[in-house]
Every structure is written in C-alpha cells, then in structure tokens.
Amino acid sequence: MKNRSTHLYPFRYGILMTGILLTGLFACDLEEYNPSGTTAEVVFSTPAGYEKLINACYVNLRKEIYGREDVMFLTEGGTDLWFNAGFRNYNNEFTRYINLTEVKPTLHNFWKRMYDPINLCNAAINRVEEAHYADVNVQNAKVAEAHFLRAFYYWHIVEQFGGVTLTTEETSGPVLYRQRSPISAFYKLITEDLEFAAKYLPVTQADHGRACRKAAYHLLSRAYLTMANYCQLPDTMKMHLDCTDMTADLARDYFRKALDAAIYLIDHQDKLGVSLYENYADLFAPVNNKNNKEALFIVSHSTIDALNPQKYPNRLHMWYQAKYDTYCGVSLNLNDGLADAHLMPTHYLLTLFNEDMDARYYGSFKETYRCNYVGTGLAKNRKWKASEITLFKKQSPITTNTVIPYDSVALWYTKKVVSNKATRNCGIIDIDDLYHQYKSSEGDVRYFIDTTQINSFFPSLIKFADPDRSDASSQAGKKDVIVFRLGETYLLAAESAYGLGLLDSAAYYVNVLRQRACVNPSDFVDGRMKIKASDITVDFLLEERARELCGEHMRWYDLKRYGKLAAQIYKGNPDIKNFEFKHILRPIPQPELEALLNREEYGQNKGY
Amino acid sequence: MFVIDGIQGGSYSDINPSDIESIEVLKDASSTAIYGSEGANGVVIITTKKGKAGKSSISYDGYYGIIQPEYPASLTGDAWVNFMREGYRARYNLEHYDPADDALYFNSDILQAIQNNEFVDWLDLVLQNGHQQNHTVSFSGGNENTKSFFSMAYFDEEGLIANDRMTRYSLRSNVDHTVNQYISAGMNTQVTHRINNNRKSSVITTAASAIPFGTPYDSTGRVVRYPILNNSTTLSPLLDETDPYTSVDRDMVNNAIVKAYLEIRPVKDVTFRSNGSVNLSSSRKGQYFDTWSQTVQGQTNYASAANTIYRSIGWDNILTFSHSVKDHSFGATLLSSWGKSENENYSMTGYGQSVPVQLFYALSSSNSEGRQLSSAYAGTERLAFGARLNYSYQGKYLLQATDRYEASSILAIGHQWHHFPSVSGAWRISDESFMEQYRSTLNNLKLRLSYGLTGNAGAGPYSTQSTVVPGTQLAFGDVAASYYYYSTTIGNKQLGWEMSANYDAGLDIGLLDRINLNLDVYKTVTTDILLERKLPSSGGGEGFKIWQNVGSSENRGFEMTLQTLNINHKTFKWNTELTLSYNRERITGLVDGSDILSGTEKGSLLLGHEIATYRTYERLGIWQLGEEAEAAKYNCVPGDIKIKDQLTVDSNGDGILDQGDGVINSSDVVYIGSPTPKYLLGFNNTFIYKGLDLTVYMTARWGQTIQHEILGRYNPGGGNFPAYFDYWTPENPTNDFPRPYNEKSFTSCTGYMSMTFTDGSYFKIKTATLGYTLPKSILNHMHLEKARFYFTASNLLSFCKSHLIKYYDPERGGAETDPIGKTFVLGTNLTF
C-alpha cells in the first residue's frame, strides 16, 4: 500500500502540471507589451504633443542641411562664381559636372534629408484637427509653420530634381509605387502652403529661428518669381523639364504676385521686424550673426554643444577659406579661420566688383593675413624661408635674412594687380598669378585657374566666418545660417518689376542696395554706383545678385530659373567642360529608384 | 542556438571553457525539431562538468600567453617620399618629377623632416603585444545520492591597443541529487562578473593613415595634441592615452544563470521532467570623454552612464513514456515550453563636467543645459507545445515523428502560431544478418533519412507596431526644444513565420575499427524569409524600414566527416579528423517578383543568388597607357580605376545585349559575390607519443567574397596607407590601385567602393598544441592524479587566394577594427 501511494502522488502531480500548461495557456495570442513606444494617435492628440511634431519638422534643417557641405555644393557649386578650390577633385560631380550620375551618394543624402521632414510636415498638416486646439487662431499659427517648411523643402526638391514625387500624405505602410508630378503641381502646392503661412504665421516668434510671417512672404515672392521665370524659358528647356503647361502668358500674373509679396515685405519692415543694415559689412559681421536684423529666416545652431543634433553644426566657415597658416609667420588663428577650402572665387566673380566704390567686395572677401609669429632667442624674429622665397618669387632685397615684422601684413591674396610684388616684404599672390588669360575656341577672353600650388591662395569668402569657435582648429562652428534676408527681397522686387516692364521700379529697388553698398556716399551717382532704368537687363540682374548674394546657397537656382546655366558657366567658369543640357536637372538618386517597384515607369531624369 | 545543461538559451561567451564537459552539434531538422524556432539554424548542446560518485578531486587549469598584433605596416622613408612625389607629378601634370624640385612642392617643414630622417611609425606606437591569462580551480565529488561540481575562474585579457582590457570572474556550481528511486533534482548556477575597458577601435586606422612624421610625445613624455608637422588640425592617434581619464568607456556586466530541474519517475517507463531557468543580467556602460579625446575632439566633454537590466525566465515540462516489448521499443514525449525575456534601459548623459577624474560618477556636476535622459523597455514571449513518437525494432530500424506547435509574440496576431512537424528514419544495415560476414571489416553501416519543418521568428520586437519616439538635441537658439518623430520601423500587421523544410539523407560507415565516415546530402527550402527591407526614401524617415516575409530560398549541399586512426601503435598514435562541407544557396522567389535592391553595396536580395550579397561595380583594374582613347570615353585617364561598362545595349537588335552604354552608371552595378562560402574545411591531426601529444588544426573557407576594409584606406592624395599596396605610375602598370594624385581623396575616384571587395578564400593553421603529460610513476610521488603541460600557438599562419590581403588574419572577415593577433600560450592542467 505504501509503495502504491508514493507511486500515485507524483504521477498525479505530473499529469496536473502538464494539464495546466495544455489547457490554461493553449493557443492564446501573445500580446506585445510596449510601454516605451507609443503611437502618433496618442502623442499628437494634444496641443503640447502636436507642437513636438512641429518641432521635429525643423530638425533636419539644422542637422543635415544648412551648415553642411552638400547644400553648398548643390546650390553654389557648378556655377559661374566658383572654381573647385585648389584644383582638387573633391565633388567634381557638382563643381565640374564630371561623372554626375544617379549613384553619387550626396544626391541621395540630399533627397532623403528633404523628404524626411516633408513626411513630418504632411503628418502635422493632416493631423492638426486631432490636436484639439481650443482656439482656431492658435491652431492656424502652429500648422502654418509646417506649411512654410513643407514649401521650403519641396522648393529644394523641385529645383534640384524637377517633377518628381509630390505627396501630401504621411507614410503609414509599405508604399512601393510612386508617380511623378509636374513642376507646376509642385509650385501650386508650394504657393498654396506659403499663402497659408503668410496669412497665419505670427509676426514674431518667441523662439529664435522659428518661422515668422516675413519668411513666408519672402519665399512666396521667390516662388512666384521662379514660376514666372519658368514660363519664359525657351520651349526646348520646357520640354526637357516637362513644364510646357507653364505657358508664357501666365508669366505676367506670377511676376505681379512675386512683386506684391516682395513689396508687402519692403513696405512693412517695421511691422514684420526686419530692416537693412546701413553698412553691408555689418550684415555678415560675426557679432551680428545671432541677432541679425536683416534676416528673414535663419537656421539656428546652438552655442551649447549638447543641444545640436550634429557634432559640427556649421562648417561653412572653413569651406571658402584659403590656405594661409604656416606661411610667412602666419599661424592658424581664430580670426583668420580654419582653411579647408572647397570653393574659390572665379576671375569672373572677383572682377564683378569695383572694390574701390562697392563695399560689398571687402564685406564679402578677405585678402590679408598678419604675421603672428612670436619667437624667442635666436629665432626671435620670423625671417623668410628659402621655400617661401621660391614660392612667392621674391627678389632682392628680400632674402632669407629679411625679417617679417610682427603684425605686419605678411600674406596678401588679392584681386588687384600688384606691380612691385617681387620686392615687397609680404607674400603676394595677385589676380594675374592666380588666373591665366587665354582665348576660348570661340575666340572669347577667358581666365583659367593656375594649376600649380599657388592656386590655394585666393581671396576668401567671409560671410560664414566664425571666430567664436572654441579653438582655432575646431571645425565646430555654431553660427546661425541666414537663409533669406531682406537684401534679397529688394532684388526679388527688382526682378519681378523688370519682368512686368516696370524698369524704373526695378532700378529703384536695385539702387536701394547699391546706395547702401557705397564705400563713400558720394559714389552714389550715375555712372558709378547708381544705375539707371536702362541699365537693367537679365544679365545685369544676375551680376547684381552675384555681388549681393554670392555664397548664400542660391546661385545655381538663379541661373537655372533664367535658363542661363550654360551661358554663365561658359562666361565665368572655363574649368567646367562637361556641362550638358541634361544637367539642368539632377539625376534621381539610384537608391530611390531601386526601392520603387514601378521604377521603369517612373523613370530616370532625361539624359541620365 | 545553445542548449546549456539541457536548457535553451544563454550565452556561450560567459562560460568558462574549463567547465565544459562536452559539446555536441545537431543540424538535421528532425533532431533540432524539439527545440523549436530558436534551433532552426542548428543546435549546439553544451554539457558542463558534473561531480562523480565516490571520487573527490580538485583540479587546476591555467594558462598565460601573449598576443602579437598582425596588421599591415604603413609607408615610411623613401617609399613614402616617392609616393608623394608621384602625387605631385600627377597633380601638376609633370612629365618627370625632379627630386631637386622637392622644395617647390613639399611643405618646407616636412621636407626638413625627410632630410633629417625623422619618420614616425604611428601604427607601432598604437599597437602593443596583448596578454591573456586564465586560472580555474574546480572541485568535483559526490556519493550515490548527491553529486556536485564547483569551479572558480579568473580570466584577464589585455588587448592589442592600450586601455583595451577585459577581466572576468566566474563561479559555477552544479549539484544533482537523487531523493529516491522516483525523484531526482538538480541545480546549475553560473555567476559571472565582467569588466571591459574599451578603447575607440578606429584608433588603428587613424594611426595607419597618419602622415609618418611628428612629435608623438613632448619632452616630459606627454602625448602631443597636434603632433603632425605643419598641421594644426590633425589630432594625435595617441590622444586617448594622454591621461587616464581622457577617454573612459567601461562596461560592467553581472550575469547570473540559474537552472533547476525536477525529475519524477512515478511508474516504470514514465518520466516527468520540469526545467526552470532564470537568467538575470545587469550591465552598466560608463563613459567619460574629455574635451581632447578622439571621441569629442575639442567639443564639450561629456559623461554618460547607461544601465541595462535583462531578465529571462523559462519553464519547460516534458513527459516521456518509453516501453520495450521484446525487440520493439516505443517512446512518446509530450512537452510544453514557455519563456519570456525583458530588457530595460536607463541612461543619462551630461555635458561640461568640470572635474574629469570624477568620470561618470558625478553627473550632477554637468551643465544643466543639454542633459539627456532616456529609458526604454522591450519584451518578448514565446510558447510551444510538442509531441514526439519513436519506435525502434532491434535497434536496426528506427523511426521518429515530432510535431511542435509554437508561437512568438514578435509576429502579428493571427500569424503567431504554427505547426512544425518532422519525421526521420534510420536503418542500421550492418546489423542485418546478411551483413554478418562483412562485419569484421564493415563495423557500421547506417542509412539515415529525415524531413522537418523549422521556423524562424527572428525579427526585432515590435516589428508589427508603428510608433513615435521622442528626440532630443534640438534647440531654438540656446533654448532646448523636444520633439517626437516616427520610429524608423513601420509595423507590419501580416508578419509571420519564416519556414524551412529540410531534407537530409545520411550514411554512416565504420571500417576496420579505425575509419569512421559520415556523409550527408541535404536540401533546405525556406519560404517566407523574414527580413527587414527599406522603403523608398521619398516616403520619409530617410527610408523607413519594414520587416517582411520577403521570399524564398533554396540551400543544397553535402557534409562529410572522416575520422581515421592512422597509426595505433602502443607508444605512437596518429588520429585525423577531416570535415568538408559544400553549400549552394540561392533565392528562388521574392515577394515583388523582382530583385529587392538596397541602394548600397550590401543588403540587396537578388534572384538566383545568395541571401547575403555584394552588389557594386565590377572592377577590371586600372586604365593603362595605350588605352587613353577608350578611357577618355569614361572621363578617365591612364592610372584611374577601370570599371566594367556592362553590356546593357542591344546594338544590332538581335535581342542580345552586346554593348556598353558608354557611361559608368547604375546600370553597371552588378552582383559581384557573396560572403557565404561555398566550401568549409576543417582538418585536425593528433599525434601521441608516450606522454607527448601534438595537435594541429587547420581550417579553410573557400569560395567567398569579403569586403576587406583596409583596401578602402588607400589615399592617393597624401597621408598614409599600407606599404604593400601597389599603386599605378606610368612606369609601374599595376592593376591594384590608381595613380597617386596630390590632395585627391579616394572617395572621389568613381567606383572606389568596388576596390574593397576581393576574393576572401583562405586556408589557415588555426591552432597547434604541444603537450606533455607526466607519467603515473612520477605523479604518484607528487600526490597528483594528472598533470599536463602544454604550449599552444593560435592563428599562426594563413594563406589567402587574393594577393590584396596581406598581414591580416582573414578569419576576421574583412573588418579593419579589432584585428586577430597571433597567440602563444603556456598552460597546465593539474588534477589532485
């Protein structure tokens, strides 16, 4: 009996255990518990949560776009204004159109970093009703930021890539098919978004860098002007861009709207909180960067490292800076900046300026570097090195015994022609050293970059200078990037007025900027800085834009909308030999096409 | 998947190798079926040592060794100078470069350093000999009812770069107790405590590519921040060695695994076993990066501490019935298995700490702006039921059938549960009476057949959910702003099991008591392959990802193991074991009906090819002199990389692509290989002569392509790179690397990525061990039961098919960080 009971007890137990497992848990669904993940429906259902979605729409501007090199190469590279600095080969695809194909990673980076916030803007615009704002005005002011930003991102997309994917819905499932939309459809959405933003964006924002009404008016003017320009393009170009629906008869209406938006901004400067600096040089003075009264829209980078989504928030300061350190007793220092130039000015750009009367030259470029050598003992004074004498072609009385005095101008890279450069106690590269004149096959005079070592020494654009970095060798600039400014608004007004045949008005707006740019107020007379209505032509307007706006992430778009890329490149940039008609559009990045199931139907841009 | 002491899961890396009694590998579906989805890719059964009844013993295992770095040396001396001259020659378009003109091109400081022969070998300053040591003491013993095994171990390894060190302490206790004839129970406990000091692994690359001049240390022996001559922007590769607090990245991991079982045999033929297991792990990653560290590089210093708490519990119940009647044996098993894993993360980061030596222990002293906090939870759960039947007749005919019904929380509701059946049979032919006459030569002949379906639910948790996540690091001016954005993974509400149907036929042959041969031929058809794919980036999220059942594949191959006892003399023995396998994998179907392209070199799914593939340009070599006209069509000159212009144009309309399109673009991006090898070989030889033993183990992986990252470090524009790279000059028409061109970056050479892919086939002598066991006669005097001393050399020699791989152990698989070093170890095993 005893044996039997010890048999049964564990037996029963075993059956029981198995039974519990078989019946109690059988085939139930295993629900996933996910407390740290949450859904859009939950988070964006209150105004506070919704505003975090609006904030997200700004992230890529800071993290991936303004302050990084891609946007610089895509908007300033490959134009009449800039050579590939130092005859290097970096980003030849954009600076020289060599091997610009759909596989260039920069293209895909640019593409995805634009479409990422577009998706967030779409979510913000479509979910605004779910945020349960009590006051519809507050709601409109908030969603207007998303409308403005969507227009801004799509403007970059359509200008770079043409009529590609235009979507107003957020992605919520595996979308593997896409359709193209024409350029006109992009601009329809862009202008609708901006009209909304211009109406509802607050005049001022408490947060530094949040979009205000003035930004919307400016971009609206530029968008309408671009549409008007497209309407006037030659038919061959319209065919290529697939925008034949933008007919010439529509141009007038767009010019009018562009002018209206610009005039509104110019006439309401006090109300909108913006004004021109009296001196052009103040505009880009580092001290005015964080509170720039001329700025209409900025991309703000924080001075606190931890708040920046990018380790090196703004590196534009180094990419136009010529090499100067280690030569003639000038060592790396914060004021002169970190030299890692990607772009150097063309002869064409430098000679657009008459620096003696136009303050915009020295307001935009730096030519001189002072000796900061402090030695001791026998090496107390900095003397010329033999290699420097060879490099700068010095002659007697300059020898290896000549002292370069402390704080004297030791290096001078100038747009002028210097007559006695071999004998002056200073390393001089003048415009004749840097550029060589030759005759193009068409018989025109052109200037080509010197291909020896001295092509690293050139006047440097200082619009992005940042002497407030933590260390002279630090790449981490933290200056804001001024994306739109009132100065350009005047030019938009002038271009729109010109388009409408209002030449006096056009001259007036241009003259506002030129008067400000005078070195001496007395220069503002006809034949010098002041211009007449009859001076205004498309070519003049493009030259004026170069003088006012060079380096400000605009040139490629300006040349493109006037259909002038090829002509201006021929005029100003003989280093570009590979420009073809197809280059008025960038190729669609290969990873995008590869991910589309209808890639054949969607197709690559023409010619690629 | 590992099964350690009968319980699924756990990490092999935390087991002290001295505690392992045996390792067994299961591959065919029928044997792994009982382990379910986690065992789909094979099961490794590890059994740790147990005590033995009646005999107590103490043993000591220990070794000490050094690790020598193996990494290609960079250019130095004349080789570097000549390279630079070639770069200037190309950039300034000189027919000949006259060394007398050095002053025109070279920077004056560098020129002076060259003349004074002040070269610095940065790689040599960064790399060091590593050390490793291990000491294990174990006790084992027991009686009829209780058997126990205890061990304590200490392991310490100092890596090939300074401040890279791992120290591990582990304890184990295995106790088995028989209560009475019906009940027995046991418990295995393993506790490990591990501290890892991590150095930024990219430092080797930084050193290998630094200009070979400079002042590494100042007169006081301190690391110089900007040591490179004439360069005030390049930081020292040695920066992280400046002070003990400059760069601190320290992991502390505590891991406890406790497994217990209860086995009940209520009546004859019936066994009920219940296994419970708990794995608790807590780890802390503490980091402090000073302003002048490689990580921070002059930005604000920061400290962070991140805690991870992991817990996993499992409970299996197994009821087994077995019965024999005369020649017939029957068996039946029922099982249920449940498991749950949870992971919690808590981390905090602060910037601008004023006292570096406080490391990550005083985060409250960081700036109040920009502190970052995060916490997260992730959990998964699984549940399975299974049944197995087996039958054997005289041990000659064996049959087995299994079904497992399993669910995983990772998959979509409605797709979570699936049946995974398997059957297998074996016929021991040598036991048949008609074979009796051959039995003295043919000891064993067995035919095996099996079929099984296995499942894989290896997606990440929450792959079926679309979520939003908070972001930090956004500011308007200097005022922080927070935001929410979409998580990069879009949920898939249809996500289901990946299933593999495995067919295997095997033959086991034993000859002359000396030769054992196992042959297997198999085919595996996998359907609903579970992979993460990228969506078009025009949808946002910089290309959202989605887990999907994307397609099907087929694997075919064979495996062979040949064990022979070549010499079996009284004083001399020689054993060999040869394993050879061949596998051919190809994708047979994809959900969209066409290739799924990733947009990068890796990750594309291509019909007819392996799952893991490389897809890029096809490198032909370098454009040579005489090919100017052809090269010019592609905007190239002699000395540039030559890429194949694939035939994509049908010039004469015959339907055959016979011409390139004249431009190197995406149409020239093709499949160039797979990291999955076609052949694997293992060859082990053991020689025993009296007390001496020698083991040599050789291995080979053949028919694979690897991305050899070091090849991407060629720098035509300056700097430095491995000295063995052969670059093109007009006088040296190599096809390896393009012409030097001063200040030109490699990344601006079209197709440069194709340069890094090369044939990765290799053969290597992995280990050689020479041991000596003291004879009994001496041992008895010393009160020792066993004493063995040995010397092991690992990673001694390797031979690569590609001449582009040199001074590198190919077993690393192509990565440039953490190279494998040659290891030389002296050790002993003592049993008292």
Quick structural summary:
The complex is a heterodimer of chains A (608) and B (832). With 608 residues, chain A is mostly helical. Chain A has helices spanning 2-24, 40-43, 47-56, 59-65, 69-75, 92-95, 105-126, 136-161, 183-200, 213-231, 235-241, 251-267, 269-272, 280-283, 316-319, 347-350, 360-364, 386-391, 431-434, 486-499, 503-516, 538-549, 555-561, 565-572, 590-595, 599-602; strands at residues 82-84, 295-299, 343-345, 365-366, 368-370, 382-383, 403-404, 409-413, 427-429, 435-439, 445-449, 460-461, 481-485.
Report on the structure:
The complex is a heterodimer of chains A (608) and B (832). Chain A has helices at 2-24, 40-43, 47-56, 59-65, 69-75, 92-95, 105-126, 136-161, 183-200, 213-231, 235-241, 251-267, 269-272, 280-283, 316-319, 347-350, 360-364, 386-391, 431-434, 486-499, 503-516, 538-549, 555-561, 565-572, 590-595, 599-602; strands at residues 82-84, 295-299, 343-345, 365-366, 368-370, 382-383, 403-404, 409-413, 427-429, 435-439, 445-449, 460-461, 481-485. Chain A is mainly alpha-helical and 608 residues long. In chain A, strands 5-8-9 form a three-stranded mixed beta sheet. A two-stranded antiparallel sheet of chain A has the order 1-3. In chain A, strand 10 (435-439) and strand 11 (445-449) form a beta hairpin. In chain A, helix 10 (213-231) packs parallel to helix 20 (486-499) and helix 20 packs antiparallel against helix 21. The longest helix of chain A has 26 residues, at 136-161. The termini of chain A are far apart. The model of chain A is unreliable at 1-8 (pLDDT under 50). Chain B has a 22-stranded antiparallel barrel. The radius of gyration of chain B is 31 Å and the shape is globular. Chain B has 832 residues and is mainly beta. The longest helix of chain B is centred in the N-terminal third of the chain and has 15 residues, at 77-91. At the A-B interface, helix 1, helix 3, helix 7, helix 18 and helix 25 of A face helix 3, helix 4, strand 11, strand 12 and strand 13 of B.
